[in-house]
Amino acid sequence: MSNSGIAGPAAAVLLAGATLAAAEPSPMRQKELIHMVRQDCGSCHGMTLRGGLGPALLPATLADKPVDGLVATIIGGRAGTAMPPWHRFLAEDEARWIVARLMEGFPQ
């Protein structure tokens, strides 16, 4: 008797978990990303991310924004604004990680 009926779904669950884990930056990279947001993004969005040249990046101001749109803005920038593209410095999963942190309240 074969267990392939069970192994297929179990493998899919394991692979899905591995994919999610792969999207999480390493602890060292997370520190680098936090520093990047505080220094580079903070230069326009305010050092406390409460706004400046760019809009505030606080949970309340981002709550109604689609995650995919925010990720696209980070990766591709915004034409006609001071928002540059960051695709040379960030992978899409790193931008998604940053958006998730911003939406929950960025670490100090």
Question: Could you walk me through the main structural features you see in this protein, from its secondary elements to its overall organization?
Answer:
- By secondary structure, this protein is mostly helical.
- The protein has a single domain, classed as Cytochrome Bc1 Complex, Chain D, domain 2, CATH 1.10.760.10.
- It contains 5 helices and no strands.
- It is globular and about 30 Å long.
- The N and C termini lie far apart (56 Å).
- The model is unreliable at 6-22 (pLDDT under 50).
Descriptors:
108 residues, mainly alpha, Cytochrome Bc1 Complex, Chain D, domain 2, 61% helix
What kind of assembly state do the chains in view correspond to? single chain
**Large-scale geometry:** globular
Which architecture does the CATH hierarchy give at level 2? Orthogonal Bundle
Average predicted confidence as pLDDT = 86
Q: Structural class of the helix and strand makeup?
A: mainly alpha
- Helical stretch count? 5
Number of domains: 1
The main pleated sheet reads as:
none
How large is the share of residues in beta strands? under 5%
